[in-house]
Amino acid sequence: MPSNVGGKMYYLALLLMVWIKMAAGGGEIFAKMFSSQQIPADPCYDEDRPRRCIPDFVNAAFGATVETSSTCGVGGPTRYCDVVEQTSGISGLGQCHICDDNTPRKRFPSSYLTDLNNPNNVTCWRSEPLVNSQSFNAPPDNITLTLSLAKKYELTYVSLQFCPKAAKPDSIAIYKSMDYGKTWQPFQFYSSQCRRVYGRANRATITKANEQEARCTDSHRFTGGEGSGPVGRIAFSTLEGRPSAADFDNSPVLQDWVTATDIRVVFNRLHMPQPDISNENLGIEELTKREREREEKIKNKLNLLHLEPLVTVLPSVHQVLAPQEMVNNDALDVQEMNFHPEVTPTTLITANGATTMAHHYAVSDFAVGGRCKCNGHASKCSQAKDGELACECKHNTAGRDCERCKPFHFDRPWARATARDANECKVCNCNLHARKCRFNVELYKLSGRVSGGVCLQCRHFTAGRHCHYCREGYYRDPTKPITHRKACKPCDCHLIGASGKTCNQSTGQCPCKDGVTGTTCNRCTRGYQQSRSHIAPCVKIPQVIHTQGIAGEDNGEHDDDDDDHGYAGRTEQCGKCRASTRRMNLNKYCKRDYAILGRVTGRQKSNEVSNSAGNSFAKFTLNVDLIYKRGDDSVIKRGPMALYVHMADLACRCPKIKPNKSYLFLGQENDGSGLNGLAVTPKSIVIEWRDEWHRRMRRFQRRARSCH
């Protein structure tokens, strides 16, 4: 083995070699070494999946402050005495000592209750010595220990270790607080006389109907420990005997039962001599009678010895002593008190014959076992910024105990984590348009318990439970996702042309007044002209229909539809076949056999078709879309059929036929052309179709009954 100096030199040389290798590019080796050291996994997550996590089990009382109602030596130097067990089974006084809070070696402060419990160096808190009556009818002692845990804990046990050679309590009450000492409720009682002291049955059975009820038991009398007296330690298990303890995760009653922020222990009575009866259920009068009989026996024996009842036999053991009395009185000679075996050294006889016993309480360890209450949403507790102890919450929870969802995570209700479900709080879906939301239980149920979040104060002109559509006066911009801050655009409807400010939220189309068109209703539609009225900004202009008739029609105001101009004798001069402008009216509608809307889909490329009169016609394919009028024996029906136009008229563009265009055709079905289809004749009207004419044609269709 190398020497100490040699070892240091060896490690220095090794370190130097490491630096040299890293400088030479050998750092990859060390990168691989550290890559294997993974960051410890978060107990609250299994990879990315949330799971229940709980803080470590601790003694929550360790180092905590305990407030006591009495501490020996706080008011000045005080004498206290040990208690020894005599052969007769009756406790007696042993060696006496002095307690003084101003002297370090004679101090017994409350901090000793929660310091490190070392069996080899027992530190004890001691109460001021008290004079206690042996009668159960006497007032209780009521020495109180109050422990503040500074946070909610889920407790498993409460334990008290009593000091050797000190009087042990017979009746102890344990209380808990869940609101930091504002209110208290019973947690557990101990007494040899449960019904008499606390009004409760001894070892009562706990059922599911009363799982939050404190029990009283005399079991502490049979769990002796070091030192005299019937008990050395008491340990209260919070879930023992509770039926739902095996299903704790699903028992809100027991979860509430084990929760506490403060623990209070009250010593009501020291260990009493047992009555010579075994039935606790005897009445109070019977028990009092037995005690009086016992006291009479003691006084009779004193009378036989010619001893007068004494107010006090010696200075009270709880008396505050003057400094000069402490010089040589570290131990009290109690031999002078042993004047009769029936009167023990601890027994003092008062003038009225009642017995008293000087004693004090002493506890070496006050322990509270449990876990920091985090409802399954944190694995540790730590000091918060405000100095308070709080859980380090996960699963999107918040609060000192992770008892609520953190802001904007209310899409599902808060719940305590269980082994099956971590019950992680979920963020509200507001499409990035809101910063606040709330939970709605009805919506949650309607969604199949999937989502219950309702967004509040939607921004960017959005609205809805999830801020998923545009609010009134705005419409959706299809070029942007709904999460975009400019996903909603203002309708910007024209103040005069629109009949309202709300547009279609999908297209942005504003509601326009009659004769007004445009997305924002900012212009007059075709066939209308602007007026000076705000009520009717666009008025209809006289309807003028360009009719493309046959040659020979004039522009006179009279109706020349009765002029029967045949094709015979027509010339090739286009001047006689110019298009004329005529007004469409009911009279013209009535004098035609048919009125149809059709689309010219094409022209046949075959040779011209001639009729019996020798007239040449061009043949087109016509698809009939709508039939406004037809005769009873008409062969016109919706769908494809043949259309014939005179070659001379077609050359003069009268009518002008364009493929894939829709036209309004009015004419005589029995036109004498002898062709199997529709033919354009002098009685025919061919007009290129406009959508706004549909309403007028329907009106003609309704009024056709008045035709002569």
Features:
708 residues, alpha+beta, Jelly Rolls, OB fold (Dihydrolipoamide Acetyltransferase, E2P), 10-stranded mixed β-sheet, 7-stranded mixed β-sheet, 8 helices, disordered N terminus
Q: How would you describe this protein?
A:
The protein has eight helices and 40 strands. With 708 residues, it is of the alpha+beta class. Strands 3, 4, 7, 9, 10, 11, 12, 13, 14 and 17 form a ten-stranded mixed beta sheet that branches. The termini are far apart. Residues 1-16, 18-36, 224-230, 273-284, 304-357, 545-572 and 576-581 have low confidence and may be disordered. Among the domains are: 59-363, Galactose-binding domain-like (Jelly Rolls, Sandwich); 546-557 and 570-706, Beta Barrel (OB fold (Dihydrolipoamide Acetyltransferase, E2P)), CATH 2.40.50.120. β10 (169-177) and β11 form a beta hairpin.
List how many beta strands DSSP finds. Answer: 40
Question: What is the alpha-carbon Rg in Å?
Answer: 54 Å
CATH class of the domain at 59-363: Mainly Beta
User: How many strands, what sense, and barrel or not for the largest sheet?
Assistant: 10 strands, mixed
Write down the overall geometry: rod-shaped
Note the beta-strand portion.
25-35%
CATH architecture of the domain at 59-363: Sandwich
**Helix vs. strand class:** alpha+beta
Measured between the Cα atoms of the first and last residue, the distance is 134 Å
**Mean pLDDT across all amino acids:** 77
Number of helices: 8
- CATH superfamily (homologous) name of the domain at 59-363: Galactose-binding domain-like
CATH topology of the domain at 59-363, by name, is Jelly Rolls
What is the helical fraction, as a range of percent? 10-25%
Low-confidence segments, ≥5 residues, pLDDT <50?
A: 1-16, 18-36, 224-230, 273-284, 304-357, 545-572, 576-581
